[in-house]
Design brief:
By secondary structure, the chain is α+β, with helices and mostly antiparallel strands. Helices cover about 40% and strands about 15% of the residues. The strands form three sheets. It has a seven-stranded mixed β-sheet with strand order 2-3-4-11-5-6-7, with helices on both faces. Strands 9-8-10 form a three-stranded antiparallel β-sheet, with no helix packed on it.
Length: about 350
């Protein structure tokens, strides 16, 4: 594996993604939605869930497990809820549609839940939660996944790493947001450790006997990820499975296909859930933002631990990463570049920044 990094402009990376997705048959709107989700995630510094995954989506688009021309549809709804059938469209396209539906309903209902079925891997949950924050609402996004995480007392994968995110609008500051997996780490971090030949902390993974291991190669075919904070992460994963799959008619647990490894001609049938809370229905939005800014200031000004230089709010590091990426360019890690080179070769593309 190439061990160097490359710095490119955000616009260059966006153009590459758009070119790839257009070649795969996506219309301009869907290509731009997918590109924005993936590249924004990279600007946040979350390289495990950005453009690195693009070649796996392309593989499914070409094989038919993802349908480039599919249009997500609302198949059931009420004043404050809806169920969306993704029709095996790109997970990003379905997820943006679903969150926008939740935002629209929350404007009149005060809050709204939109569940999704027949979707696929949707990249970073935080992107969708932030769509609600941009609309002056509190947003939540979550999804289930194929089993990769064990649970207390088990020695095999039982649940997916089931991510959940929230975002809260503010006044002077960027939205406060958190995007986490129910597991101690996302599976992508194990793949990075594998690619780099590094050992992992003993609280990330268990082996085939359910015992902690520092060997990243025990994942995904032999070992299983541990839930974060033991029973707490386990509990979150069960809630996410319920809202994303049981409530929506999506595949549940072992029924969910792996977006990376399952036969690419077949849909993965992921589920997801999106919630929007209309703050303005409860109190004036300006008042809420003032209260948020005051809370943020109080947290920043809390007495610092020895050797600590700064106290961060959730999402603050990501916003700073994005600001730097937009002004100075994106420094893509070696594993991301390797994935993009494989994709570029496969697509017959030769962008100069990737050929170095």
């Amino acid at each position: 594996m190439n061990q160097t990094t490359t710095t490119i402009s955000v616009a260059e990376l966006e153009q590459f993604c758009l070119t790839v997705l257009r070649q795969c048959g996506l219309n301009e709107t869907d290509a731009r939605i997918t590109t924005d989700v993936l590249v924004t995630t990279d600007t946040f510094g979350v390289f495990t869930h950005g453009v690195k995954a693009l070649r796996y989506y392309v593989r499914r688009l070409r094989a038919g497990g993802l349908r480039a021309a599919a249009v997500p549809q609302v198949v059931m709804e009420g004043p404050a809820w809806a169920v969306v059938d993704g029709q095996s469209a790109m997970g990003m396209v379905t997820s943006v549609f679903a969150m926008n539906t939740a935002i629209h309903k929350a404007r009149t209902a005060g809050l709204a839940y939109v569940g999704v079925r027949n979707s696929c891997h949707f990249a970073a949950a935080g992107y969708y939660a932030n769509l609600a924050a941009k609309a002056d609402m509190i947003g939540m996004a979550m999804a289930n996944d194929c089993p990769g995480m064990t649970v207390p007392g088990a020695r095999k994968p039982v649940l997916g790493t089931n991510p959940i995110a929230f975002a809260i609008p503010t006044g002077k500051e960027h939205p406060v947001f958190l995007d986490i997996a129910s597991s101690a780490v996302a599976g992508g971090k194990l793949r990075v450790a594998q690619a780099q030949g590094k050992s992992i902390p003993s609280n990330w993974l268990v082996d085939t006997e359910g015992m902690p291991t520092t060997d990243p190669f025990a994942y995904p075919h032999a070992g299983a990820l541990l839930p974060f904070a033991g029973h707490k992460g386990y509990g979150f994963a069960v809630l996410i499975e319920t809202l994303s799959a049981l409530m929506t008619g999506a595949a549940v647990m072992a029924q969910v296909g792996s977006w990376m490894e399952t036969d690419p001609t077949q849909p993965t049938s992921h589920g997801a859930a999106f919630l929007a809370f209309n703050i303005g229905a409860i109190m004036p939005i300006a008042t809420f933002k003032q209260r948020m800014d005051k809370m943020i200031a109080d947290i920043h000004q809390a007495p610092k631990a020895k050797n600590a230089e700064r106290i961060y709010l959730p999402g603050e590091m990501e916003w700073e990463n994005r600001r730097k990426a937009l002004s100075q360019g994106l420094e893509l890690p070696a594993d991301v570049l390797d994935s993009l080179r494989i994709l570029a070769d496969d697509m017959g593309l030769k962008p100069a920044w990737l050929m170095n």
